[in-house]
């Protein structure tokens, strides 16, 4: 079932729009707006499409609105419990508000927020979390079904006032219940879906669990925007999300890096090379494959399919392009030769 397509700032979510990647700001808003914006520009360079900020205070809503006016990507305000903060965020100019109508106060308060969003052209994300279900559903034997029922309660509020610029999320920290909830929801409703796990964990386990859950849904055609929620900096979430989309063929632009794990045969250190250059490579929107290999066994022969590559051969470093050697010599000159080849590649 094709989702509805809704605007969030100058971005579209759902319908035939590409799947988007998002992250969340992880610190209190004590920094200057210029510093925050510098970080957002960096996230955008890595492929982030929108970013969410917590707004526990009215002043936070105003600051987030100021950020939204200058941000290169849409800004989402995340609000719980106090509908006045949601109203202030909408007045301040955010592009989207994340609420749970069931915990924003009375039904009248929720409807006031939705009407204000409709008047301002602001999208709403309704967030259903498996760990904070309504009291009536907390002892439900099936968490996936319980999340669906919680979402349906919120749909009743939306439909009463005819508000449709909505994205839903049904998340928990568990893969199976999250997959079930989103699958059931997608079979019944056309609202766009934000998918991911609520608290997936540190970098390695969190990326593994998120990749499994998100990929299972995307391969079924379920999911319109994703977040890899990690106990890590936002840039790591963005990188993980973008790589999931690349691996599934859902994001074509951007450099694809293949690199060997390194072994005792290595005469070139791929780890050191990537530590030095990985971020610059991933910021590029060139559509090409880069191979970083430790020895001539893996490159250029096994990496012949790569557009550009670098490896070691004894005491020398080799740079190759489409399997053909274009430079062989000492390391620093090889790095320059690599970047010359990279820059000249029209991907």
TrEMBL record:
Gene3D superfamilies the record matches: Dihydropteroate synthase-like, Sulfite Reductase Hemoprotein, domain 1
An example Gene Ontology molecular-function term: 4-hydroxy-3-methylbut-2-en-1-yl diphosphate synthase activity (ferredoxin)
Cited InterPro entries: Dihydropteroate_synth-like_sf (IPR011005), IspG_bac (IPR016425), IspG_bac-typ (IPR004588), IspG_C (IPR058579), IspG_TIM (IPR058578), NO2/SO3_Rdtase_4Fe4S_sf (IPR045854)
UniProt cofactor note: Binds 1 [4Fe-4S] cluster.
Span of domain IspG C-terminal: 257-340
Record domain IspG TIM-barrel: where: 5-241
Superkingdom as given in the UniProt entry: Bacteria
Record has Protein biosynthesis as a keyword: no
Entry function: Converts 2C-methyl-D-erythritol 2,4-cyclodiphosphate (ME-2,4cPP) into 1-hydroxy-2-methyl-2-(E)-butenyl 4-diphosphate.
Protein family: Belongs to the IspG family.
HAMAP family tied to this protein: IspG (MF_00159)
Name of this chain's protein: 4-hydroxy-3-methylbut-2-en-1-yl diphosphate synthase (flavodoxin)
